[in-house]
Specification:
197 residues, mainly alpha, 8 helices, 68% helix
Length: 197
């Protein structure tokens, strides 16, 4: 029996896989070393590729971090929207969103947790683009907070920053063995709702 030649679609599929492998390698190294301390050569080595081959998929390191950020946003957004689907109570919706956020952050992918990284030292144009990506995800939380039955004098923007700051900062201190990410997410929403009473 003659071997069939690979089709163009097979080649595209392999190309997509290599692109995803590069993104995963980049996200891992960006999380471990930081963006500035990670070179394209480092990423190629991590992905098991020749450095020159990377440029078929990404023209620059900036393009690569933007792609990893967008993937992190996609994973977080998908998890959040699935978690709140069909829930009517606004506090329960926010709780489930926080739980989904935490479960995704600590679910083993490097993409989501990259959105918690400090990007203050990146070049202004790149930083603006990354903030734009992150803000489009943060808006999901802003919409959920807008739906809460709160007093008129409560600054909902500060409330969102406080909640997301608490959730995202956990990437610096969380260690398995204590409370689960889901319990931590639910706790921060309960703290918002009930205070310390």
């Amino acid at each position: 029996m003659a071997e069939s030649k690979p089709s163009r679609e097979d080649g595209l599929h392999r190309s997509d896989n290599r692109r995803q492998e590069l993104m995963a390698a980049a996200a891992h190294l960006f999380n471990q070393r930081g963006y500035d301390a990670t070179s394209m050569r480092d990423i190629a080595r991590e992905a098991g590729m020749l450095a020159g081959s990377m440029y078929y998929h990404f023209s620059s390191k900036d393009e690569l971090i933007i792609a990893t950020y967008e993937e992190g946003r996609r994973l977080l957004s998908t998890a959040l929207l699935e978690a709140i689907d069909g829930i009517e109570d606004p506090w329960e919706r926010l709780t489930e969103a926080a739980v989904a956020h935490m479960n995704t952050l600590f679910g083993g992918n490097n993409f989501s947790i990259l959105l918690c990284a400090d990007i203050s030292r990146t070049a202004p144009t790149l930083r603006s683009r990354l903030i734009e990506i992150r803000d489009s995800y943060d808006k999901l939380f802003m919409d959920l907070i807008e739906d809460l039955p709160l007093k008129d004098d409560i600054d909902k923007g500060l409330l969102r920053l406080s909640l997301l700051g608490s959730l995202n900062w956990s990437s610096s201190w969380y260690r398995p063995g204590g409370q689960t990410p889901a319990q931590i997410g639910a706790f921060f929403v309960r703290l918002m709702k009930d205070g310390l009473s």
